[in-house]
Fold Alpha/beta hydrolase.
Amino acid sequence: MRDIQLTEPEGKQVQVGDHLIHYIDMGSGRPTVFLHGGGPGCSSWTDFGTVAATFAQDRRVLLMDMLHYGRSSKEPFRAPRWSYHAQVIGGALDAIGIEQADFVCNSIGGSTAIALAAERPELVGRLIVTGSEPVRGAEPLTPELGRAGREAWTTYYADGGPTKEKLFDIMAELEWKGGDDIPQWTFDLRWELSLLPDLLALGPDWTAGGGRGIPQDLSDHLPLVTAPTLFLWGDSDAFAVPEYALELSREVAAGSVYVMADGAHHMEEQRPDEFAAVATAFLDS
């Protein structure tokens, strides 16, 4: 791992129904919402803290923790997964007073933003999606990585519970290309957040009855997305090959694709300068 330290800024909380949503508010200018991925311990700061200051130079950066993640609350729900997360994020933006924002999203954050862009199009200006699987049919980089990805969450919390070794293996194998580029601060914070008591109480069950939402395919949502959308993909993303991103882009009215050479699932931390350059060029166009 890289011996890099980055302090998490003090955040804020907003009430959305029964839920408390945590977010970090930085900079000024065009509101830009960052939504994180779904690995153990993920939050929008763990995923985007490395590039947050770059975007905050001329944008208002809102790093939001989705329900069940980071420092947001962990109440169970049993509704279509991505639509419910979108409803909560939309409600949080309403409460903050944001009428429209651009979105930069990783993995499950991208699926949530696609649902939001289809269901509340007035809220979404431009949208960047990386490594998301909003519809069935994603082909993993290898069958072995596909199996590891499907089992990662259950494996992490089963068989004696979380360990640092398990977390490192998930991050190194599925999210980065090996462990050398993982920032120490990211690993440490993800370890801390993955052990929060309310998260442990929620449990690792991702089936329809487990309180993490009913699995949802967004095939019917993609044609409703009118926001200009960039599918920013790593050519070495473990969960879905770039051809899947191309298929997604064809279903969105204003979809385009950028494939980052040697990019893995967390390009924003693995290749932060290139990621920020590509993302800001799209957002500012």
